[in-house]
Amino acid sequence: MQAAAAAVMEESNNATTIEQQPIALINGQEQVSNEQQPSSPTSVATPTSTTSGGTGNATPAFSYDDLFPALPANTSAPSQSGASSSTLARVTSSQKTQVLHVPCEERKSTESEKFGEGESKRICQQITKETGAQIEIVSGKNQSLTFLIKGKQSELLDARRKILMGFSTQASRQVTVPREHYRVILGKGGQRLRELERTTSTRINIPSQGDESEFITIAGTKEGIAQAEQEIRQLSAEQYKKFADRTTVPKIYHPFIVGPYSENLNKLQEETGAKINVPPQQVQKDEIIISGEKDAVAAAKAKVEAIYKEMEKKCSTVSVEVAKAQHRYVIGPKGSTIAEILQLTGVSVEMPPNDSTLETITLRGPQVALGNALTVVYQKANSVKSVEINAPHWIHKYVIGRKGANMKQLEENCPNVNVNCLEDKIKLEGDPENVDRAVSYLTEIISNYEENFTFEVMTVNPSYYKHIIGKAGANVNRLKDELKVNINIEEREGQNNIRIEGPKEGVRQAQLELQEKIDKLENEKSKDVIIDRRLHRSIIGAKGEKIREVKDRYRQVTITIPTPQENTDIVKLRGPKEDVDKCHKDLLKLVKEIQESSHIIEVPIFKQFHKFVIGKGGANIKKIRDETQTKIDLPAEGDTNEKIQNELSDIVTEEVQIPPKYYNSIIGTGGKLISSIMEECGGVSIKFPNSDSKSDKVTIRGPKDDVEKAKGQLLELANERQLASFTAEVRAKQQHHKFLIGKNGASIRKIRDATGARIIFPSNEDTDKEVITIIGKEDSVKKAREQLEAIIKECDEVTEGEVVVDPKHHKHFVAKRGFILHRISEECGGVMISFPRAGTNSDKVTIKGAKDCIEAARQRIEEIVADLEAQTTIEVVIPQRQHRTIMGARGFKVQQVTSEFDVQIKFPDRDATEPVEGLTNGGSGENGGEEGQEGEQETEAVEPVRQCDVIRITGRIEKCEAAKQALLDLIPIEEELTVPFDLHRTIIGPRGANVRQFMSKHDVHVELPPSELKSDVIKVSGTPAHVAEAREALEKMIEDYEADRADRELRSYVLQVDVDTEYHSKLIGRHGAVINKLRADHDVNISLPKRDDPNQRIISITGYQANAEAARDAILEIVGDLQTLYREVIEIDTRIHSHIIGHRGRTIRKVIEDYKVDIKFPSSDEAQSNPNAVTIIGKEEDVENAKEVLLGMAEDYERDYLENLPPSPPQPQTVGAFLSGSGSGSGAGGASENGFVMKDAPWEKQKQAKNLTAPNTQSQEDFPHFAAGGAPVATTPITSVWGPKN
Asked: Do 434 and 415 contact (CB within 8 A), yes or no?
């Protein structure tokens, strides 16, 4: 940052003075001190100016040294960046590779089932996502992990740190550092701390400002903690105000300086009083830092170097090979064994790094002590024996025993033996003698279980679990108790298995029982059919006739239709797969028939009026049919049936007077009573007056006889209400209502006639379906109630019946927890059906319930048995690789086939690869493939047929054959189509959206060639019908593409118009209004020339040729109108222009709007020739008026402001005056031809040296930096040579 004083020149008594003003530095930017600035420009003298030529128009020449005097020399140290920048940086690859090894003993616990290869891979993927580094992981036989990390240096450090945190055991250590050193450890913005954490792969927690603790906590691996501690202590040591010194001692001699258990180091520090910081063994640094008093540091350094020199002379080395697995016994816990060897023998033990594969251990020390140390090392390495026993993973829990009983026994007999269960092994470590005894003990246990125990794994659909387990685990517990086996359900790695462990015979029997249960469950199917609940009643039919027909055809299928209270559209089907699919198809067909013809109404019309209904040429009747989408049938021409006419002529309307207070009781609850009267009386219409009208007249309309009957009942009810009104309720099961009503209502009509009471049954809208309402006189109601209760009691009486069912069909009825039996019971009045127990071979099925219900249940059971015996199965052979295509997404295609042909299709297990003789691909089990497909299938006929190729179709024989042909038609084909390469991008769409939609819509697969081939051939594969549809769609796309391309060519017509730049702004209009309107009106694109275009007059019009020509004519018309306008230029002082324009142009805009003219002020180029010129454009009269207003405004402003300014004395010319071209000669306003001239400038010197390049602004000589110091601060206001500061 430059800091200097700005030099200014001021002439006083022909003497030149230079003053300086200080510049304050605020936030790294320069700010001039706020002293009072002069209100008008201060003239600057022109020192050392000379003239050439005459005195009138002479151009003065100025000395560069006078105008820009030299600043004080910059005494600051030269920037080091310049020197460093001259050195060429070494170019290296940004991608680096590092290998990281995590030994088994430092690895996090792997006992959790979730921590395995999958979990490790997931953690590495997460680290890759966070850091950007590529990670490869390898697990060794000894459970160690090796990581290969690739990436940039920063990515490597971040990934290494996260890997160690995720896979290595984390230790923690506290380091004491003075609080005043925290800022050094943190660095600017915490950057140094983050870098330290990244390089050491640790997490460092420094106490906050409010925390008085002086402990810094380091968490991470042992090596990382040691390295981080070394760096922190090193940073802290550098900050001690006391003297600090460093000495370099090879790492191999550090153990002798530190001594066993740091004895030598502590002794040195006590003797000298200095603090000696020796890098930990894991940190590969030779430098030892000594801090403290100067004398103490010198003494300590001398002693350290003396130890180093002595050991350098005395030490020898010997190398020994020890298995890598034994190294940790030589190292000991936290290196205690190495320290013990050093204490006993005086020899240092050097171990290879943990991530190294070397097995060489180096002993360093006096020659006489090496032999003893070698003996101790071998003793330590062989002090622990490690043995692995092969044991399958499933036996481990038996080896451990119940509640760890075997392990407790092993611990008592073989103490100090460590047992680890690995994948398929058990690892033992400890004293050799105890390990041998433990191996013998565990081997005996393992052998016993391997001989007598086994396990089996069964893959089961999760939906079957609840059936296999049973209620409250009854099924599984029974198998466990009877067979002494252990049954577990496993859900891992996307597989659903049942695992059976225990004695071999028990496992075998349990597997057979479970497999039998699974086979039963697999043959069942449940399906939901969505049918509008408004159609449920129509599906059931009168007295359940329609739904009974469906159930009779599919006796093994349970059809559950929701009740009106359930308020749902879902009808549930459950039963054998083949029957469920057939029933589903029949239901949908029934629904379609009901929807197509769901309502019929007869309208009575006199025969003589038929011609008016039909209209001329059938126009009226056709219009009604088209508008209402209904079918209207009229009687034939020769029909002599006069029933319609007679009925119409018999329609009458009568009024009955009934007091309004009885209306509610006559209408009944929910209108039940009045509805029953209208129904009994032939559907007459009875209308009560509105409550607001206060009328007592009830209108009855209908046939004369029915009206009279209804009138009599209404009057009778009114009279009854006058005498008395009584209501009672009786409850009866809904299935018994039909028995109470009787055939065609005979039973209920008999009760009504005998008692005179009105009996109302619940409707579909009622929530309580069991309440029967009785209305009438009290005596009548009581009599009717007694008779109803007697009939209800008879219905509740239970009888017993039997039906014969072949035992082979019993399983079908009792399967799925007796779902079919429950359904039959619900349909037949709640009868109880009992099948004989398994193994009795009895064919008698007992039915208990009402007599009619028993008969209905017997018929239903016989229908189901008959349907079961009418099934047949055929086979069709299709290669297994095409099964997925034939099935379609989620089995959609095969479901369509099963629904259409009312068959059941079963695909084989894809793992069944056994060959089948007598069949060929594309054929069937009956004809050996004679009906196979031609073409491709002839080639495939030589392929051997396997079990997984055979598809079985069950149903009636003719439907099975049709379904077989439909499956063969689903075998895909591939066809090549020619599509222009330019259209491929459109077919693919953004991110492949269009092609995915195309493939989904037409159910085909589209393969486009790579873009670099620019091929026109694309491949479409799918069923023949779908491929044909896709071909037609592509041909339509090609046709549209060609049409669009031709249209684009027509729209690309370009027309150029030559228009004077003066009119361009008018063509654009305010905010682009004019040009946008032209574009919209003519549907073209109009482009005006850009600033760098060579011809600024050309306007381009792009679009259809006719539209472009129309737009051109419109532009020329506008230009022609503009050219006819009057134009006048007036002179107004340039200093007044801003006043006339006004704030944000408000003043001049008002003048333009008031006088409908256009006013232009001179541009920067025009101002050089005549800055005072103002142009007014418009109609001549409007221009004159605007001219008077502008001149008046200029005159007023000049009189009020410019003339009142105080006269100023003649001022010397300023440099700014010369820069603007004003001269000082005698000619008024004469401009200098040569402009401002300066002598001896640096660039002039270069020109003199015939070097015409631009001045080098980076030159320290031509453009020196401001000095840090300067002249004394000036107190008077100053001005710059470049003019006054605004």
From this structure: yes
- Could you tell me which residues come within 8 angstroms of residue 1134 by beta carbon, excluding any fewer than 6 positions away? 1162, 1167, 1171, 1172
Q: Compute the distance between CA of residue 183 and CA of residue 662 in angstroms, rounded to an integer.
A: 98
Residue in this structure with the two tokens 């690995």, named with its chain if needed: 422
Residue pair 907/887 in contact (Cβ under 8 Å)? The answer is yes
Looking at residue 508, its amino acid is: R
Between CA 1088 and CA 1069 the distance in angstroms is 13
CA 894 – CA 901 distance, rounded (Å):
11
- To which residue do tokens 């009643």 refer? 537
The greatest distance separating any two alpha carbons of the chain, rounded to the nearest whole angstrom, comes to 148
**Residue of 420, 436, 336, 325 lying closest to 381 (CA atoms):** 325
Residue pair 757/748 in contact (Cβ under 8 Å)? The answer is: no
Residue 665 near residue 688, CB atoms below 8 Å? no
Give residue 61's region: left, alpha or beta (phi > 0; psi -120 to 50).
beta
Backbone angles phi, psi at 1158, to 5 degrees: -120, 130
Contact 1280, 6 (CB under 8 A): yes
Q: Are 547 and 537 in contact (CB under 8 A)?
A: no
pLDDT tens for each residue of 72-97: 544 444 444 344 333 444 455 677 88
3-state SS assignment for residue 1175: strand
**In the sheet where 904-906 sits, what is the strand order?**
872-877, 950-955, 904-906
Query: Shortest CA distance to 1061 belongs to which of 1090, 1038, 1084?
Result: 1090
What 3-state DSSP class applies to 917? coil
Rg, Å, the chain Cα set: 54
Contact 1074, 1118 (CB under 8 A): yes
Q: What is the CA angle 1088-1091-1092, rounded to 5?
A: 115
Q: Which of 563, 569, 490, 480 is nearest to 528 (CA)?
A: 569
Within 696-785, strands assigned E span 697-703, 726-731, 758-760, 771-776
C-alpha to C-alpha distance for 661 and 66, rounded to whole angstroms: 122
pLDDT of residue 546: 84
Residue linked to tokens 């923690």: 172
Burial-class residue 603 by CB neighbours within 10 Å (0-12, 13-18, 19+).
Answer: exposed
Are the CB atoms for 6 and 20 separated by under 8 Å? yes
Judged against a pLDDT cut of 50, whether residue 733 lies above it is answered with yes
Reference 714, options 758, 750, 744, 751; nearest CA is 758
Count CB atoms within 10 A of the CB of residue 1049: 9
Give the model confidence (pLDDT) of 471-497 as tens digits: 788 888 888 888 888 888 877 666 678
Is beta strand 950-955 parallel, antiparallel or unpaired with respect to 904-906? antiparallel
Residue 352 contacts residue 361 (beta carbons within 8 Å): yes
Q: Give residue-wise pLDDT tens across range 228-242.
A: 888 888 888 777 656
Phi and psi based region of residue 28 (left: phi greater than 0; alpha: psi -120 to 50; beta: remaining): left
* CB contact set of 1089 (below 8 Å; sequence gap of 6+): 1095, 1096, 1097, 1098, 1099
Angle 892-901/577-596 helices, nearest 10 degrees?
70
- Is residue 200 within 8 A of residue 231, CB to CB? The reply is yes
| Cα separation, 439 vs 433, whole angstroms | 10
1126: Cβ contacts below 8 Å, ≥ 6 apart: 1177, 1178, 1179, 1180, 1183
The helices-and-strands tally (H runs, E runs) of the chain is 49, 48
Q: Which residue has the tokens 């359940």?
A: 544
Alpha carbons 1091 and 723: distance in angstroms, whole number = 106
Q: How far apart are CA 2 and CA 318, in angstroms?
A: 65
CA neighbor of 906 nearest in space, from 972, 969, 960: 960
Give the angle subtended at the CA of 575 by the CAs of 573 and 576, to the nearest 5°. Answer: 130
Bridge partner residues of 418 (DSSP): 429
CA–CA–CA angle 53, 58, 61 (5° rounding): 100
Amino acid letter for position 454: T
| pTM for the full predicted model | 0.30
